[in-house]
């Protein structure tokens, strides 16, 4: 055995530019959230940590607007929360309807394929939303046990209309799974009122928090489905029967109902949870409580409308035409706007100009929208008038 210096590079403590992150996420950390990342580490069986966990779960219920007992943060990216839903709610050969009209709804579909579902994929042109008629027709045709959709599609800037979707799914004995990664904490969403069975988001978008910690909630019906599976969840790390024994052991998940045991059972170690990310998430949620969700939603809406007006002054247009909030059809997602790149403009050059000269990051399109749109996120702490003003003036410079 001989010791090697092969990979021993000489470098120094990291110094990164300070960017204004106005793309599809991550967005900038709120300073108070940032501070929590450096709070002192404690063990995962410390009583103080248990209090942090309990408070975080309760604050997440406020975020989701739910009474769901099973409301926990997943240690991982938004995609890990997505996979928690897919892996727990789907057994091989289960019938599933996947509504697909963008990059992330397609990701859900691809995951469901890997877990052996019998899938009806309802494909619509990117940038579209699904009507209640289309959804009912898919439910009638396929008779699924799960329907999946994305509420705020970050690749297209479209918001799916939710009123009535949950009722329809339940009428056909089907659970409803909704991706809220780009919207929750920025755009009104009501898990209980909209009868959503499985829902998740990520820390790094409208919560102004770090990536890698992802709130998730399951209805009792979803828990029951998991508790009565014939096969174990094929993903050990994301198995919510096991995760529940650490996060909410008083919940008798195996029977799919809440049993208040006194004293509550001991929490069982599952994995070492990322304590600092949980401290940060808790602080993001406290910020939401302090401002009030209704005010947070109004602030995001005002910033988006200011953005639309600014774009218009530059001769630019949001890709999504429908602005009507109460429209049956869906509409623009206030937290993420896709902007059509005009003929003859080099979209990449504009993004580079903003980054090099103003330290502002916006993103280009992905998948079917590559080269066609810019994506501008006004999420969480970043959704404010001065950021919009700065972006519009920087874009005006870039387009000269
Ligand atoms: N779903 C949507 C709508 C998203 O915008 C994203 C990320 O941009 C994800 C899921 C995946 O989240 P993550 O990148 O944190 O895994």
From TrEMBL:
UniProt GO molecular function: alanine-glyoxylate transaminase activity; L-serine-pyruvate transaminase activity
EC assignment: 2.6.1.44
Modified residues (N6-(pyridoxal phosphate)lysine): 205
GO biological process assignments: glycine biosynthetic process, by transamination of glyoxylate
GO cellular component term of the entry, any: peroxisome
Chain sites annotated for binding substrate: 375
Keyword terms of this UniProt record: Aminotransferase, Pyridoxal phosphate, Transferase
Broad enzyme group: transferase
InterPro entries linked: Aminotrans_V_dom (IPR000192), PyrdxlP-dep_Trfase (IPR015424), PyrdxlP-dep_Trfase_major (IPR015421), PyrdxlP-dep_Trfase_small (IPR015422), SP_NH2Trfase/AEP_transaminase (IPR024169)
Cofactor(s) the protein needs: pyridoxal 5'-phosphate
Transferase recorded as keyword: yes
Aminotransferase class V domain segment(s): 45-365
Family note: Belongs to the class-V pyridoxal-phosphate-dependent aminotransferase family.
PANTHER family membership: ALANINE--GLYOXYLATE AMINOTRANSFERASE (PTHR21152:SF40), AMINOTRANSFERASE CLASS V (PTHR21152)
UniProt name for this protein: alanine--glyoxylate transaminase
Origin species: Dictyostelium purpureum (Slime mold)
The organism's taxonomic lineage, starting at the top: Eukaryota, Amoebozoa, Evosea, Eumycetozoa, Dictyostelia
């Amino acid at each position: 055995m001989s010791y090697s210096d092969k990979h021993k590079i000489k470098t120094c403590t990291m110094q990164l530019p300070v960017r204004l992150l106005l793309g599809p996420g991550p967005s900038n950390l709120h300073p108070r959230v940032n501070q929590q990342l450096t709070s002192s580490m404690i063990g995962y069986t410390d009583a103080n940590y248990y209090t942090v966990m309990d408070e975080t779960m309760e604050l997440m219920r406020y975020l989701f607007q739910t009474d769901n007992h099973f409301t926990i943060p997943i240690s991982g990216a938004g995609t890990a929360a997505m996979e928690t839903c897919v892996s727990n709610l789907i057994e091989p050969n289960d019938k599933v309807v996947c509504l697909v009209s963008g990059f992330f709804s397609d990701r859900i579909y691809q995951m469901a394929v890997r877990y052996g579902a019998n899938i009806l994929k309802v494909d619509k042109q990117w940038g579209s939303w699904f009507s209640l008629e289309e959804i009912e027709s898919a439910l009638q045709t396929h008779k699924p046990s799960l329907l999946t959709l994305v509420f705020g599609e970050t690749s297209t800037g479209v918001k799916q209309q939710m009123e009535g979707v949950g009722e329809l799914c339940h009428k056909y004995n089907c659970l409803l799974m909704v991706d809220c990664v780009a919207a929750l904490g920025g755009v009104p969403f009501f898990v209980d009122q909209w009868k959503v069975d499985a829902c998740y988001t990520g820390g790094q978008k409208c919560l102004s928090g770090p990536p890698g910690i992802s709130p998730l909630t399951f209805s009792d019906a979803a828990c029951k489905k998991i508790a009565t599976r014939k096969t174990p969840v094929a993903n050990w790390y994301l198995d919510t029967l096991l995760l529940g024994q650490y996060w909410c052991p008083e919940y008798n998940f195996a029977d799919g109902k809440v049993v208040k045991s006194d004293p509550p059972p001991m929490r069982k170690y599952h994995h070492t949870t990322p304590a600092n990310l949980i401290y940060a998430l808790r602080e993001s949620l406290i910020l939401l409580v302090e401002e009030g969700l209704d005010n947070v939603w109004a602030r995001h809406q005002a910033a988006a409308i200011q953005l639309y007006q600014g774009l218009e002054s530059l001769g630019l247009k949001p890709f999504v035409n429908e602005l009507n909030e109460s429209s049956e059809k869906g509409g623009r997602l206030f937290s993420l706007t896709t902007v059509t790149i005009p003929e003859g403009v080099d979209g990449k050059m504009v993004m580079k100009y903003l980054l090099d000269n103003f330290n502002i990051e916006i993103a280009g399109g992905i998948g079917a929208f590559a080269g066609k749109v810019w994506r501008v996120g006004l999420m969480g702490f970043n959704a404010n008038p001065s950021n919009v003003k700065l972006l519009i003036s920087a874009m005006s410079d870039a387009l000269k």
